[in-house]
């Protein structure tokens, strides 16, 4: 797995842990640090094949659900009215600019170059809009397919990645495939992948960072096992402090990804804080398991301090670098503020950074003062059960209009997660918390960290917020379900009858969730359906 891993048998295949076949001390340490189940993952050709083929199959299925009729509707849906046009001018001018009054009809009709050169005050950073712009760089802004191309690609690839993440987290190829399948069919994942908004990209970079930290956890523990076993084999003892583990490339990569998450929206900062803490907790646990006596102090000095000195500056530099197009032009909003206002602001900063700081002051004032009423504003306590979903698009038609063959028809795109999946996930989160307290299972901590970074901070905010923000932590809701499934399977090992019941329950759960996804798919994707059919999906008044 890494260049400094020494094993006596042939090296493991790329991405898999080496067989614990070294000296007895090392073998025992590997079992302590990883568990016997993780050490056997990928040891057979069959498991290795399905470790890649299974995630690929569910990703292809997800791609079909996300790309089918992606260009419909050919309208700027919900906040696409901001992000698509901002992305187009960012692509063409290097900054987001103002548009004439009521530009949407003309833009949708193909008049995409009616923007002005006057800079627009945009309240989110650039990364998400740069990604949306990539699709339009390929096919232009005249087609709504290309507005949504990159979100659809990202949403598809994340299904593959989550399957790989869950496989590694739960040491089970089957459970990895289950996790990918659940993300493939969830409504929040489908709707966001088919809409050019920003929040999906927070999820993308957070999940990539989580994957990197899982790899870092394994790399660090392999190094720790090697170095501690070398001490023991030489006749020494584990002392008050342990060895240093060297440069952590995976943790560095996680910091870059988290900097990009912040570059999509500032709420990515919550993931940065939560994941950095998780990484240090994993390091402390590893040092405790190998017998380091002052493991808490050792983890702080040898792991936590270097982690802070690496992750925080790396994320900051990545974030500032993501403003590259704004720096490269003189026309962006407040780009020349420092030149035009000498002696004001943070005077010790270079002029471009002083202007950027002033921009951020205005962004901060906007976000902290955003408390206007909105029809679809929601309380985050209801997010986990999808109490108030967000309607992205709704049109009604009389008979004979737009192909309507009944008295009244409707087209809707509703950012509503599969209700069965989300309700089960909420129950699974409770079980995960209980199991964390009872069993001190590190996997439970890993599952809950996504909620700590993606949901908990919103509980204490006073600003106007929406249920569709849940896309950022959707993968961890799914991991909660899969975690409970995994624990039930583990707890019934050696009891064939009980295990068979668990397996049947898992299959039944997947079938039910898949069935409800088929039922809701038309109102996730804007099908033209009879009004009664649309209304049959509105189970609660708060869903309308």
TrEMBL record:
Membrane topology: Multi-pass membrane protein
Keywords: Cell membrane, Glycosyltransferase, Membrane, Transferase, Transmembrane, Transmembrane helix
Segments traversing the membrane: 49-68, 145-162, 169-190, 196-214, 299-321, 420-437, 444-460, 466-489, 501-524
GO molecular function: dolichyl-phosphate-mannose-protein mannosyltransferase activity
Enzyme superclass (EC): transferase
Domain Protein O-mannosyl-transferase C-terminal four TM: from-to ranges: 353-543
Protein name: Polyprenol-phosphate-mannose--protein mannosyltransferase
Naturally occurring in which organism (per UniProt): Paraoerskovia marina
